[in-house]
Amino acid sequence: MLHYRFCFLIFTFLNIFSLELSAQNHTVPLIKVKKLTQEACDYLDETNYEKSLKKSGIALQYAFDIKNDTLISRNYNIIGINFHDLGEVNKAVFFYKKALFYAERSNIVSLRMMITSNLGNLYFFEKKMYNDGITYYKESLKFGRQQKYLKEVAITNLNIVWSYFKIGNYKEGLPYLQYINKHQNDLKGKSNDIALNFLNGMYWASEKENDKATTYFLKAISYNKSKDDKPDLAYAHLEYSKFLSKIGKHKEAYDNLVIYNKITGELYSQEKLKKASIAGLNLELDEYKRQIEKIENEKTSQLQSLKKSRIIVILFILISFILLFLIVTLVKNIGFKKKHNLELLKAKEIAEEASLLKTQFISTISHELRTPLYGVVGITNMLLEEHKELSQSEHLSALKFSARYLLSLVNDILQINKIEENKVVLESLTFNISDEITVIKNSLSFLSQKNNNKINVEIDTAIPEYLIGDKLRLAQILMNLVSNALKFTKDGEVEIRVKLDRIEGKFYYLNFLIKDNGVGIAAVDQNKIFEKFVQVGRKEEDYQGTGLGLSIVKRLLGLFGSSITLESDLGAGTSFSFAIPFEHDPLKTKKIIENIEVDLTSSDIYKILIVEDNLINQLVTKKIIEKNNFVCKVVDDGFGALSILEKEQFDLILMDINMPLMNGFETTKRIRQLGIKTPIVALTAFDKDEITDEAISSGMNDIIVKPFEPVKLFKILNYLISEARNAG
Q: Which of 283, 377, 418, 515 is a plausible cystine mate for 707, CB 3.0–4.6 Å?
């Protein structure tokens, strides 16, 4: 059997790697473990399996004591070879694999080479699993090539050739045969020469080169029949007999077959004798296996117990320190708590007062900002209506858009707490992405001209004409990013790119990229710029702003379920990118457009009373109402409203809230006390959520927040007037 060829290497490897084995327990000298291992190997060579197993078992226990993976692996390998020789194939596999595990841990390449070769022999010769044998041989060969062990490499190549030829795969085996023929001197053994010659004979027989095949077969069977050569010589006669039979030389084939049977008969008799001699050892062998497993389990258990004991001691010490620390801290905290309770209560009161002041400030500033914005939006609309020639004016369109954008920005800045608490709901409006970006570009033309920049727009043609989504929030995001790019770029370009990424059902995912070639942002500052009130690299003479723009962008994108990506290098420019899904539904779009494009004219003439103290807002509201052919009267305060209502009847009252002398809520209560049931709509700059409860309790029918869309106003007017007349 070819696996004997690796047995003699065991102690050689022990000497080669003795430096690695220096780590040891002083109670068991390393030299003693090596000596026991050598004795186990010597007994194995003498086929004294019982003594070999005893010595290797003791050596294994000592190897575990000194925690030396290399010695553990070598003794497991010796035990595996013992069982291999005794025909205990499954036990041999078990111990070979144990040996391989510890060899991998010790990282001794030559040891792994030897063990994998032994496994290859076992799977090939005993289990007849030729492909598995080839796999192990090739693994062994890989290790051998790394270490350049010429003889072992040659023998492993020989085994691979034999394996491939055994399954009739001459093509795969040929490269390995060619290698051995080239390195024949590396084999250094008569038995190996026999095998090499009859394998060459098998190959040339497969190629139908009968003369060459005959030469090699005759060479193979010409060697002396020593004890060690007999197994390979038997195979040589068998393969030569098969060849002779194929070429029609049946008598010579028969003669060689007789010789094969004779040799195998002798080997079989010897095998029977060997098995008979060891039959009484089977129970002991099983006991050795159990003892070896017990050794390993005991060592593992001891290591685990030791680790647990150490952990318990460490934990006990830690817990003791923690408990002591907690006791000291508890004593101190009792005194500290008593001392600082009053301070905490005071701090709580201050915090509550600050929160209330903040709420009041937001409410007041919201009203004060929306009121003039209502005038700006209203007067812009009036200019567009009264001067049709200005309808195509980019400047006027930009003014109108900027006013609406400013209103949206004011709403978001002043209600930033609302955004953080996810109370802002996105709207569903139909829009054209190209039109929206064109308006943004035109609105920012003055800023681009100031820094001599150029705005380039690229929109994917695959994007549908109409999409549905919150176009105002999108515009606010783009306005912030593009205006930032223009501020930080001089004599350069700002690109706005919109591409269709993918389609999922009715949703079109659009990728937006805002890119400039301006000053760029340093890597250390890139994580800061999305925080509130942060401005990076600002000089006093440059870049106006609050530092809220990118913070708002990030929060608004969060409402869309998206996030923003930043790429920037100093001096090379900056790019921001994000993706937002928008709905594309032609039927829904048509319905939205139809709802917007309503007929604002009415065949009935309604009489409306406007109660408003701001002169500009009076003018704007009156113009909007009279444009729809309504009759409109205006009073400056609540007392004026009560006075005119005593004399005249109206179809509806538009009531401002924040007025001098008497506010809108009080005025409405007094109107209801007079028994007047005319619908009253609050027309206010306050946030709707802040006044809803008080408006309903005072007797108001609805609320419209300034600035407003005229369409929305007339829808409410028509509905409330119609309801009041039907009720009457």
A: 377
